[in-house]
Amino acid sequence: MTKHQQILTFIEDLAIGSKVSVRFIAKELDVSEGTAYRAIKEAEAKGFVRSIPKVGTIRIEGVKERQIEDLTLREVSQIAEGVVICGFAHLDRSPNKFVIAAMELNTMVRYLEEGALCIVGNRRDAQIVALNHQTSLLITGGFEPDEEVVALARNNELVIIQSPYDTFAVTSMINRALYDRLIQKELILVEDIMVKDVSYLTADATVDDWRKLSQNTDHSRFPVVDEEMNLVGIVTAVDVAGAEVKTPIKEVMNSNPFLVGRDDPVTHISRIMVWEGWEIAVVADQGKLIGIISLQDVIEAYQQVQKQPQFGETVDNLVLSGFRFVDDAEHLTIEGEITNAMSDDYGSASCGVIVTVMNMAGYIGLRKKYRLNAITENFTLYQLQPIAVGTEIKVTARLLLVAKKHCNIEVEVTANNAMVAKGLMTARIGDKKLVSETVH
Fold first, then answer.
1. How many angstroms separate the Cα of 149 from the Cα of each of 91, 138, 158, 362?
2. Is the pLDDT of residue 438 over 70?
3. Contacts of 197 (CB under 8 A, 6+ apart)
4. How many whole angstroms separate alpha carbon 91 and alpha carbon 17?
């Protein structure tokens, strides 16, 4: 373990609420203040510590895995325009439920539980009861808690937030924020679903190490990293089949895995996984392993989205849902049927639908051959004949020119071995995926 990793581990093991400083880290671990400073900044980026004005840098409770609609206490305080009275180190907790103290105490007790947030006005008895049930407080109406209430909250490591608005207004503001979050979060990102606790092998491991890890975890696919946690490949059961137990993993692993970023949209990633046959994708940040996602994770994410009635498929997904990848060694080819949903008023395939399919074929072809991202700048449709509903079409993308910053792709559509559409796609190439920078 490097000095940098040792510092991060040391910080992560500190008690919640502990103060963290450059001088303290440098003295405890016998490292330079520069090394300590860089590690503290990374710990802050990872959510282990937070710098609080007039308090300093303290160890906080890291953000746990959240459902899409969850809010943290920090976000609740911002929504309610509140002032945090105590519990700064615990603001990244997400309340598991909200309780409005608008009932008798003996009735309210039935709804209180550890990890909840009680919205209460100037009711000292309700505040005390809630704190004794390990429930944080959101005090409305601008009322200030007395010293005994604050002391009890600090003793129980709970949060007290004071809001200037009344209970009804605060509740409405929180409900609105939850609704807005659901609407805005229609696009699920890789970070939302990735598995962070990843089992992996080191670059000096052997096939025997793979077998032992596979037996212990019941998994067969593992990322391979170097001593700095930089991704160098991925190894599967197919890779090790027939290899001797002492064979180095480096000799059998796939050194060109499917690498994605934490901010990549799941819809986009899933499409690539389906088109290119990837069962698993490795998540990396600046080349370092931070997580992993599988097709099963993607399916479960879609199931979660479908539970929300305001969510629906995109136009691209609906158009391409019936198309499949065709094995073509020379070019990228997809095929599918023109359905009723793709037709225009005359019963033929809509021009917009055909362009969408052709454009997507060109994009997938570029990704498959060169592992490049691209943004379409121009698409010229040279020929288009009427295509009847129910017709099976084949779309083939040929890469004519791939330069440093742009590319030209010719796309043809055929039906019954006759060309029915032809176009030229011009795209601007984005940055290469990290895999091309860290693996080779």
1. 18, 13, 11, 64
2. no
3. none
4. 11
Distance CA 278, CA 222 (A): 14
For residues 326-352, give the mean pLDDT: 82
Structure confidence at residue 302 (pLDDT) = 62
Specify whether the CB–CB gap between 20 and 57 falls below 8 A: yes
What's the mean pLDDT in 387-400? 90
* Cβ atoms of residues 195 and 292 within 8 Å: yes
For residue 303, what pLDDT is reported?
Answer: 56
Q: How far apart are CA 157 and CA 128, in angstroms?
A: 14
Percentage of the chain with pLDDT > 90? 28
Total structural domains within the chain: 4
Q: Is residue 435 included in any domain, yes or no?
A: no
Task: Give yes or no: residues 163 and 248 share one domain.
Answer: no
Do 267 and 333 belong together in one domain? no
The verdict on residue 382 lying in a domain is yes
pLDDT at 404: 78
* List of residues 6+ apart from 418 with CB closer than 8 A: none
Cα 409 to Cα 336: distance, rounded to the nearest angstrom = 20
**Which H or E run includes 43?**
helix 33-46
Residues 17 and 36 in one domain: yes
Residues 32 and 80 in one domain: no
Q: 46 to each of 9, 58, 76, 178, 191, how far by Cα in Å?
A: 12, 13, 21, 25, 13
Closest CA to 382 of 361, 416, 343, 412: 412
User: Which residues constitute the domain of residue 377?
Assistant: 315-429
Instruction: Answer whether residue 361 shows pLDDT above 70.
Output: yes
Can you say whether the dihedral through the CA atoms of 261, 266, 268, 271 is positive or negative? positive
Read off the CATH number of the domain in which 298 is found.
3.10.580.10
pLDDT tens-digit series, residues 292-311: 998 877 777 665 554 444 44
**Cβ(249)–Cβ(207) under 8 Å?**
yes
